[in-house]
Amino acid sequence: MEQNKKFKLVSSKKTRYLLPNILTLGGVCLGISSIKFSIDGNFSLAVILILFAAILDALDGRIARLIKGTSEFGKELDSLTDFVSFGIAPVFILYFWELKNYGRLGWAIALIYSVCCVLRLARFNLTKNENHQEWKNNFFEGIPSPAGGLLILMPLILELSDLRYNFVAKDLTPFLTIFIAVLLVSKIPTLSLKKISTPPKATIFLLLSAGMIFIALLFYTFETLLIFGLAYLISIPISIFIFRKQKEKSLTKISEDDHEDIL
Fold first, then answer.
1. How far apart are the first and last CA of the chain?
2. What is the dihedral of CA 179, 181, 183, 185, to 10 degrees?
3. How far apart are CA 82 and CA 221, in angstroms?
4. How many domains does the chain have?
5. Do the domain assignments include residue 30?
6. Which residue among 42, 48, 106, 245 is least crowded, i.e. fewest CB within 10 A of its CB?
C-alpha cells in the first residue's frame, strides 16, 4: 500500500524558511491594498502602505540570511512580490491620482513603468558576479524596484506634505515616472549596502539613527519621505564615482596577480 503523503511547503525541520516568506507575502498584501485605497481616493494611506511594503522587503531578505532561511522559493516569491508592490501598485496609485487625466498617454506611461520594472527584476535574478568581482555585490545595476516605487510617488508625496511651494507638483508626474522607469533598466550603479558590515562601536549610533528616522516618519511622514527621496537621487552620482574607483582598484589587482603568475 502506498502511504498517504501530505503536502508540505517546507519540511518540519526547515520551518525557519516560513518567517521570511510570511513577511514577503505581507508585502504583497500591502501593495494590493494600496491600489484599493487609491481607487477609494485615500492616497495618503495608499502611500503609507507602499512605505510599509518597502520596509518589509528590506527586512525579509536580511532576516532570511540571519536565520539561514534563504531558499530558491523565497527568491522567486520575493521577485513576484516586488513586481506587484513596486511595479504595479505605485503606478496605479499615480494613475488614479493624476495619470488618468492624460488619457491613453497616461495609461501608456503606466505600462512603460511596469514593463521596465519587470525587466529590471528579471535581469536582477539572472545577475551573478564572478569570484574576482565580489565587490560588485555592494552595487545594483540601475535603481532597485522598491526605491523606484517610492520615487515615482514623490509628486503625490509632495502634495500630501505640509510644505509650501510655488509650482504644481502634479505636472512632474509623467516626466518623473518615465525618468525613474529608465533608471530601473539602466546599468547605472547604485549602492546596495547589503554586504557592508557595521563596526561594533558604531552599533549604538546606528540604533540611534534608526530611532530618529522612525520618529521622523511617525510625525513627519511625507516630509521625511521627500528628504529620503531627494537624498537617494543625490547619492546616484556618488555611487557611480565609488563604483568606478573600486573597478579601477579591482582591475589593478587582477593585473598585478597575473604579472606575479607569469613570474
1. 68
2. -150
3. 22
4. 1
5. no
6. 245
Helix (H) or strand (E) holding 126: helix 104-126
Is 181 a member of any domain?
Answer: yes
List, in order, residues 6 or more apart from 76 with CB less than 8 Å away: 125
| Cβ atoms of residues 64 and 56 within 8 Å | no
Q: How far apart are CA 171 and CA 98, in angstroms?
A: 9
pLDDT tens digits in sequence order for the chain, 263 residues long? 445 555 555 554 566 778 888 888 999 999 999 999 999 999 999 999 999 999 998 888 778 777 777 777 878 888 899 999 999 999 999 999 999 999 999 999 999 999 999 999 988 888 776 655 665 678 888 999 999 999 999 999 999 998 877 888 889 999 999 999 999 999 999 988 666 666 777 778 888 888 999 999 899 999 999 999 999 999 999 999 988 888 888 777 766 665 555 55
**DSSP H helical ranges for 83-172:** 89-97, 104-126, 145-151, 154-160
Q: Is residue 214 part of a domain?
A: yes
Q: Which domain holds residue 144?
A: 88-255
Residue 83 in domain: no
CB atoms within 10 A of CB 101: 12
